[in-house]
TrEMBL record:
Keyword Phosphoprotein: no
Known catalytic reactions: di-trans,octa-cis-undecaprenyl diphospho-N-acetyl-alpha-D-muramoyl-L-alanyl-D-glutamyl-meso-2,6-diaminopimeloyl-D-alanyl-D-alanine + UDP-N-acetyl-alpha-D-glucosamine = di-trans,octa-cis-undecaprenyl diphospho-[N-acetyl-alpha-D-glucosaminyl-(1->4)]-N-acetyl-alpha-D-muramoyl-L-alanyl-D-glutamyl-meso-2,6-diaminopimeloyl-D-alanyl-D-alanine + UDP + H(+)
Known role: Cell wall formation. Catalyzes the transfer of a GlcNAc subunit on undecaprenyl-pyrophosphoryl-MurNAc-pentapeptide (lipid intermediate I) to form undecaprenyl-pyrophosphoryl-MurNAc-(pentapeptide)GlcNAc (lipid intermediate II).
Entry EC no(s): 2.4.1.227
Keyword Transferase: yes
Organism listed in the record: Candidatus Nomurabacteria bacterium RIFCSPLOWO2_01_FULL_36_10b
CDD domains: GT28_MurG
Domain called Glycosyl transferase family 28 C-terminal: residue spans: 192-360
GO molecular function: UDP-N-acetyl-D-glucosamine:N-acetylmuramoyl-L-alanyl-D-glutamyl-meso-2,6-diaminopimelyl-D-alanyl-D-alanine-diphosphoundecaprenol 4-beta-N-acetylglucosaminlytransferase activity; undecaprenyldiphospho-muramoylpentapeptide beta-N-acetylglucosaminyltransferase activity
Enzyme class: transferase
Name by which UniProt lists this protein: UDP-N-acetylglucosamine--N-acetylmuramyl-(pentapeptide) pyrophosphoryl-undecaprenol N-acetylglucosamine transferase
GO biological process: carbohydrate metabolic process; cell division; cell wall organization; peptidoglycan biosynthetic process; regulation of cell shape
Length: 376
């Protein structure tokens, strides 16, 4: 059995592939499926160690972006796409996999076109409420289509589509409370706010937190992921702001939270502040009330649409970036934490929204289609 994963460009396209690979390998081991080869077709290796851990071989396929605005680079990238399709045709023909699983994004397009030409079964997954262009095109060729939000179902053939949620890596599905306060050096008697400023640092969020800090630490403890690039400068600023503050130890700035620290932060959090990317599904799985600030200039406005879909489900409050001020943030945090009924309702709504078996469902479908293709 041979399976090709394709997708790239960002963690939102990559880490769901890893989650599905984890489930796929678990089924392969449990059911003793022999002679399995896994490949990742993309333009550049993104987090190669995670793919190696899942025994996935990287195969480089050139790719080009199709920007929504007028640019000479679009003309140049058109030739990159054509080159990528030719390379993918050759590489796919040599491997001839039983199924291709795509997480979308520009990096997956050449491989999807080549798979369609070679009549290799395709499974795609769409993370957003409104599918991107690659998903809308490849959805016409796909054997099966998985979507994260119910709102996306109507964009595809109802006979092929299912709402399964977003695949989340196993290590990020855990919520660890035991020992978490000690590990994170927190007081168990004071509520904890966890703020995800983004792995690279979401500047508008971080800027507001700086202004809100003196007020926040009066009543709460704050764990703040500020981004690896920002951590040194950020600590200088926050150390200065909290220099004479008696509650300065209540604030912890970190460049990056690894899987263990993330699971522990989820275990102690009363409220999480985050962007509206794929992390929504991780937060929902942890059943923690959230305040979500969507990026205003995301492609197709997908972050905003995703945020409001999750808010409609009851798991979060949305603050538009234009309204995101220290006063508004602090007021919303107080409203959620000071009202146990609101907090509990949000927790239950998040739990209902979460689909922790998404990766398992997709992995099982990959195996079913791959095995039927092998014998056909």
């Amino acid at each position: 059995m041979k399976v090709v994963f394709t997708g790239g460009g960002s963690g939102g396209h990559i880490y769901p592939l890893i989650a599905v690979a984890q489930s796929l390998n678990a089924i392969i081991d449990k059911e003793n499926i022999a002679n399995v080869r896994l490949y990742h077709f993309s333009d550049v290796p993104y987090d190669p160690d995670s793919f190696l851990e899942q025994h996935i071989e990287f195969v480089q396929i050139p790719a080009g972006k199709n920007r929504l605005y007028s640019s000479f680079q679009n003309f140049v990238d058109m030739f990159k796409v054509l080159h990528g399709i030719l390379v993918a045709l050759v590489k796919l023909y040599r491997i001839y996999p039983d199924v291709v699983f795509s997480k979308g994004g520009y990096a997956s397009f050449p491989t999807l076109v080549a798979a369609h030409i070679l009549r290799i079964p395709i499974i795609i997954h769409e993370s957003d409420t409104v599918p991107g262009r690659v998903s809308r095109i490849s959805g016409k060729w796909a054997t099966r289509i998985a979507v994260a939000f119910p709102e996306a179902v109507s964009y595809f053939d109802k006979e092929k589509v299912a709402c399964v949620g977003l695949p989340v890596r196993r290590e990020l599905q855990r919520v660890i409370k035991e020992g978490a306060y000690e590990y994170l050096k927190l007081d168990p008697n004071i509520p904890v706010i966890v703020i995800f400023g983004g792995s690279q640092g979401a500047s508008p969020i971080n800027d507001v937190i700086i202004s809100a800090l003196p007020e926040l630490v009066k009543d709460y403890q704050v764990i703040h992921q500020v981004g690896i690039k920002n951590i040194d400068e950020f600590k200088k600023i926050t150390d200065s702001i909290l220099l004479s503050n008696p509650n300065q130890r209540r604030y912890v700035a970190l460049g990056f939270l690894n899987a263990l620290a993330t699971s522990m932060a989820a275990g102690v959090a009363s409220v999480i502040v985050s962007r509206a990317g794929s992390q929504i599904f991780e937060i929902a799985g942890w059943s923690v009330p959230a305040i979500v600030i969507p990026i205003t200039n995301s492609n197709g406005d997908h972050q905003r649409k995703n945020a409001y879909a999750y808010a409609q489900a009851g798991g979060c409050v949305v603050i538009e970036e234009s309204n995101f001020t220290p006063h508004v943030l602090i007021s919303e945090i107080h409203r959620i934490i000071d009202n146990p009924d609101i907090s509990e309702k949000m927790r239950l709504s998040a739990k209902s929204f979460s689909k922790p078996d998404a990766a398992d469902v997709i992995a099982r479908e990959i195996i079913n289609i791959a095995l039927s293709h092998e014998t056909s």
